[in-house]
Amino acid sequence: MRIVFAGTPEFAVPPLQMLLGTDHDIIAVYTQPDRPAGRGRKLTPSPVKQVATAHHIPVFQPATLKDGEDQAQLRALEPDVLVVVAYGLILPKAVLEIPKLGCVNIHASLLPRWRGAAPIQRSVLAGDAETGITIMYIEPRLDAGPMLHKKTCRIGRLETAGELHDRLARLGAEALAETLPDLETGAVRPEIQDEAQVTYAAKLEKAEAALDWTLSAPELERRVRAFNPWPVAETQWRDTTLRVWLAEALDETTAAAPGTVLDRERTLDVATGQGVLRLLEVQLPGAKRVAARDFLNAYTLKAERLGRPA
Which residues face 7 on adjacent strands? Predict the structure, then answer.
């Protein structure tokens, strides 16, 4: 098939690399325009563009696909399929009608659960036992198209959103590889999404990072995992901010007030609204991430209260 690939971040790299290893003709790659990055704010190509360039694939970077000239450019490529993975642009109806066999998307959840911008993080935050990948046709409504294929995976006991992101990126490549033969032969059996089961995954906000110690220990543990690597859970400690990268809910109770650091020698255990949260890896501003036991070698926190005063 003649395939045009549209994607931008790291999540889209494994599917593109998979396609480059097939007999399909990857005729072009669409990706977001280069953005300033790093301390020098130097214009930097997206991860997808870097892969495409290394394989000498033509790259297009329109700011929008609403323009008739850009649509004509895509039409001239005469694609059979447009594969879209975290591209970052809304595709107008005129674009969706260009590929002969349609536009397919890799979505990082088991639709119709978690339509929207942050399905991986919201799934971890909700305490889902499993998640997965859905290959779907794109239609004008957000993540609402007919589903072509799903692959399920368990969420690890202490798995962070970042770790799950990497696993799902590879799973997405596998799911796409399994879908393309049926798409090419017309053997796919699209399944309409059950609107009664729809949930939405809102974009993450920096304000969500602050830990509320009145929540239960399992809820706080999920927040730490869901917000790693961004925006990273944090709490107020003395006159600074303490970031919490890893934590684990303990199977024990305490009568101490929420946010109180318990009197223990080698562990950084904090009372919550229900149960105890053990902080495993923390970071002070301008410093490196360190294991909690190393942090305790430098600071004494016993009986101190974390979080902003009520």
Answer: 85
Q: Convert the pLDDT of each residue in 272-289 to its tens digit.
A: 999 999 999 999 999 999
User: Would you list the DSSP string of 144-199?
Assistant: -SPEEEEEEEEPPTT--HHHHHHHHHHHHHHHHHHHHHHHHHT----B---GGG--
The type of residue at 208 is: E
Predicted confidence at residue 310, as pLDDT, reads 62
Give the chain's radius of gyration (CA, Å): 23
pLDDT digits (tens, 9 = 90+) for 54-107: 999 999 999 999 999 999 999 999 999 999 999 999 899 999 999 999 999 999
Give the three-class secondary structure for 228: coil
> What gap in Å lies between CA 176 and CA 242, rounded to an integer?
41
Q: Pairing between strand 276-283 and 240-250?
A: antiparallel
Contact predicate 148/185, CB 8 Å:
no
Count of helix runs (H) and strand runs (E) in the chain:
8, 16
End-to-end CA distance of the chain: 62
Residue 227 corresponds to which tokens in the numbers above?
A: 């917000």
Q: Which residues, at least 6 apart from 215, have a Cβ–Cβ distance to it below 8 Å? A: 223, 272, 273, 274
Task: Give the Cα separation of 264 and 278 in Å (integer).
Answer: 11
Distance CA 263, CA 97 (A): 64
Phi, then psi, of 88 in degrees rounded to 5 = 100, 0
This prediction's pTM: 0.94
The neighbour count for residue 2, using CB atoms within 10 Å, is 16
Cα distances (Å, whole numbers) of residue 249 to 167, 267, 275, 295, 308: 24, 13, 7, 19, 21
208 and 231 in contact (C-beta within 8 Å)?
A: yes
Residue 16, both tokens: 């593109």
